[in-house]
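Q: Two folds, back to back.
A: First:
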Amino acid sequence: MAAIFPGEHVQDHRARPLLAVTVALFVMLPRVGFGAADDKKRAEREALKASLMQVLQREPLNASRVGVHMMSLDDGSVVFSHNADELLNPASNVKLVTSAAALVTLGPEYRFETEFLLETESDGVKAKTLYVRGKGDPSITTERLYGIVSDLFHTGLREVQDIVVDDSWFDAERTPPGFDQEDSDRAYMAPTGALSLNWNAVGVFLRPGDTVGSKGVVEIEPQSDFFVVESALTTGNARSRRFSVASDAAGAQQKIIVRGQVPHGGAYMSVYKKIDNPPMYFGQTLKQMLNARGVKVKGKVKQGLAPQKAKLVYVAHSDTFDIILKRLNKLSSNFVAETLLKVMGAESRGVPGTFAKGIDVVEDFLSREVGIPRGTYVMKNGSGLNDANRFSATQMDRILRYMYERFPLAPEYLSSLGIAGKDGTLKYRFDGTEAVGRLRAKTGTLENVSALSGYVQAAGGEKFIFSMMVNDYPGRSGPVVRGLDSLGAAVASVGSTMGPGRTVAELASEEKSSTPMAEVTSRVKTYLALGSQRDARNIGFLRTAWRSERDPAVRAVVAESLYQSNPQDYLGVRTLLDSYSAGTDVYGRLRAVARELSVEVPGLGAMVELAASGNAEALARIIELAGASAGDAASESEMAEGLGAVARTAPEELVQAMRTASARDRETATTLLARGLVQAGDAEHPFWKALRKSLGSTDTKLAEFSRSLEGSLSRKVAEEKAPKPLVPVQVVAPAASAPIGPGSVERTAETRPGG
């Protein structure tokens, strides 16, 4: 039957042939258009696939286990897949799973509660006992706690005998599977607690004394009787910044041990460490604040249970969960992730909340809601720390797609992710690409693991989800991170004038670019001067410089200047570690610059400083640098002194780093460490004590390695101490134009590390 349009008179048979032609043309024209659009999309997809494969075929990705899966959210098609079903360690990408399950289970409006209860005397003013019952709030800080104390004061509370902290909403297991693989006091290893404060970490603030040689100042934030400080911190010269801070459990207290030197005239420095007893940390800080606010606490802080007859006088509510979720994913908080597991367990499976109950809730969500069957993946903790989880890129994308399509929760979930080039752990990544502002993703970083999963709207408007995981890569993480960024930037450039091919090619050429040595020396000198100012006001300029400088050696020096401008900035530390390598393109060329400028090798001092504070990645890099310095007298001398400083403040961590180093680097590092220990002239050097402690380790492999290292190191120390034979030396006057060679630069107290 012919189509009838409004106003058409059926009786007019003469109009029907014309109408049929019009309808035919109307139907055919869009098909022609759609065909052209389809052809363009197919061409763009093929170009994208070719570009992505080009990245995967480069080093070090081609020598790694890589899983990649990308889908179009517009049409549901799989855009790219490479080993997408292989189960890999996703590192912190597991937080995407934890946060999705928590958002569905708890809801974006969920608020955590902390209850304050009293057993009071008859007048209602003097209290016998103040009970605090926690329910897993991961967001209480010193500032929030002070506000809570003020509210308690305004209830009329003026005197307390004892404070009893009730942590029973969680079980007694503080850390989940995977945390036991790392013996560390770093803040990212913080334990869980139904009562927690400051993400169960403490700030240790260090500053120099009035004169060189005087004691350094150590301050704890927040202050309370929970902390016992043992300090051997001294004030060194302007370049002496070699210190370590350790945190150890001491029963109901926490011991903070500080060693090393801070520079005279320098600004304060801060280090954050985990605490081991969350409820006592909370309770002792509460006691300190109550006293300061005018509420007298006459007795002690104890752990116990709030009795049924205690009267509820105040409930502290957190922000809504969607706000807390941003801290979890944008800043990749292990503490929040693991706390959420126990909260989900308590809310859905009953008190006390446990890791096992939380994992059961997550697995139920994945099987019932997302359609990922139990047993097809491995999830043992909620944060992704260490080697405890396995997911495939395909599974990650299924979770991302599910959350994107669940509208009531999608805005909160997407807004919790870091934005490329803007904030979170992606703040300084993807610079100069189409991905900036378009890509939202969760990073994942562990030793030999790097991952990135999330969403991106390409320049042409199409929206994609992606998951990229790299395991077992050789060498340092910087090239792997750049490879992942190249993959993300290629997807973001679909539909742009540049396109994926040119984007990938330009990023590759930037990695290989090299500047003439004379220009490198000049630029390095400029950035060294800026870094020496240690002024946070330079950070914006230095960030721009780091983005635009293409020579890898110059970028490494800019990264050092960034670090020096704010040593407390995690992203600045990350930039330095990713930019500085032991290869000839960075360390090799910077050694030449050092000879030209008569300074220590740029960046080496900052790397030693990080290693001396116990940073595992910096320790590994220092040993690689030691191996690369072999045969260069000046560099060997610097490395010997640097290793001696590291051995004093991070001895146990250095033993572990030596254990995992390559045989060649370890041999050179051992020789230089022996030289550094001899130069220190300390028979009771902390490194020997740490080595003896490792000999008795329950880890038989560590004990065996330590025994071997002790023998090798003792032998090399004896060789260093032995008198050197006198040999005749023929003195030859150098030509006036002779270049400065290794060992010819005079090292003064101002130029040598730790001098």
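A: Second:
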Amino acid sequence: MKRLQGIAVSPGVAIGEAIVLDNEGFRIPRRFLARNVVQRELTRLHEAIARVTSDIEESRQRVSEQLGDEYASIFSAHVQMLNDPRLREELEEMIRDRHYSPEYAVSRALRRYAKVFQSLKGDYMAERANDVFDIEKRLLHRLLGERREDLAKITSEVLVLARNLTPSETAHMNPRFVRGFATEVGGPGSHTAIVAEGLGIPAVVGVGAFLSDASGGETVIIDGDEGLIILQPDEETLARYRHEVDHQRDLANRLTSLKDLPAETTDGIQVQLLGNIEFPSEAQQCLDRGVNGIGLYRTEFLYLANKGEPTEEEHYQAYRDVAEAMAGFPVVMRTLDLGADKLPALPDPEDERNPFLGLRSIRLALKHVDMFRTQLRAILRASVTKNIRIMFPLISTLIELRRAKMVLADAMEDLEEEGVPFDRDIKVGMMVEVPSAVMMMDHFCDEVDFFSIGTNDLVQYTLAVDRSNKDVASLYTSADPAVIKLIKMSIDSADAHGKPISMCGQMSGNPLYTMLLLGLGLRSLSTTPAAAPELKRLCRSVSIPECEAVAQRVLEMESSRDVKALLREELLKRLPEHID
């Protein structure tokens, strides 16, 4: 059994069969062969070994000619290792007797060899492990070719283990079958983490190198509460986690009793609970959990799920479906919030050394106005339901906001000339995600109808921490006093100008911070549908004076460690393990 610590980004526990997505993008599940194809698959293995041997010989010859035999000797070692009779016999036995696919047999056998080398001391042995990995990748490349499995096409329940997951891969995940995932890299607040929360599946990121210890088909535990993944769990550990899964299922069932009750504090103050969604299908999840609308509709999936730019009609169909499903509840649609490096329809930026400080979000939209106008036209067309609102992300200056509003006005004018109906009084808001927006809130209040605090980016830009970098992930925390003071300033400024303000970042969905946020004056929280029942339960367990007392103590603190300690203490008082 091997326990590995990462960063918890989506709560819950998942137990299941692993599917491994390695550095090369190969996904190697444990697949069994029918008896009548075993001989054919053995032949395919032999052909792959022969072709890889030829490839290595070509590399050896080329290096020998350019650098000499001394440098080419490594390739001779590769050929010798690849054609070792014991290795070939083991691979053939797995295919012939155990009916493993050649891909799985290669991955399982060679990773076992690599682990043996890694366990031995010395740089020489470490290099031999790298040689084994190189041979594995060459063989898999020949065996798989274009037959790589698509995460969207998985039809059995699995846990995905990967070096990293791209936004497009996570956008294609089906939560019915992908029950959880863990990645070697990444941090809290990354798009991968956000999608995991939206899908409601346990996820751990930033684990560090572990794929060499994992094999497809083996049982794995992902603990999204503690940030752990457990490989080859023993029976005692499996039993304990299965009990935890049963407990979480029981707790979720008990929380359904709160669906039709208001999120009202013990002293009668109403709290608006809204849902964050990424996909149109999640609108029903919001209704099932008794939220009061959608506070953040992330529209990025339309761009990530298409190889090209989505058409106006594709935008419109998705937005209309959500607006109609919510039937009178407000739906806040955030315009495109991605970097140029994430959009397959756009050329890669020429000098994007730091995407988080580069061409992304509203900046990208204003650079590609035609694409921006297409999305705005679709949102406006869907707004005939009268419950849609538009929100611009990552606004840092008044000029940016005014330019975005001008593009919106142009789209409105075009639709009017075409005789296309839309909500002429549609409300327009902006995200508060950068310190400059907080500093200029008094001026922004004159320009928009509402605000939503996006803590994922606000934390990142306030603390100068790349939220996807595991090496500095420990510095990324919503509990930092500087972040909390900026949130307080935003709420006070919006209240002073009579403008509604909500919060839609990960902080708003974490019960640890609920009392603090209510105490700071927030009365609207937008979170993933799965987190809403627990937040409602907590709201119904506290009074506003209690929350204000907690907030006052927090505002006097100097470190995130002290803030978290206090908040945990207060949370434990209100949320016992079981619902009475």
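Q: And?
A: DSSP finds 22 helices and 16 strands in the chain.
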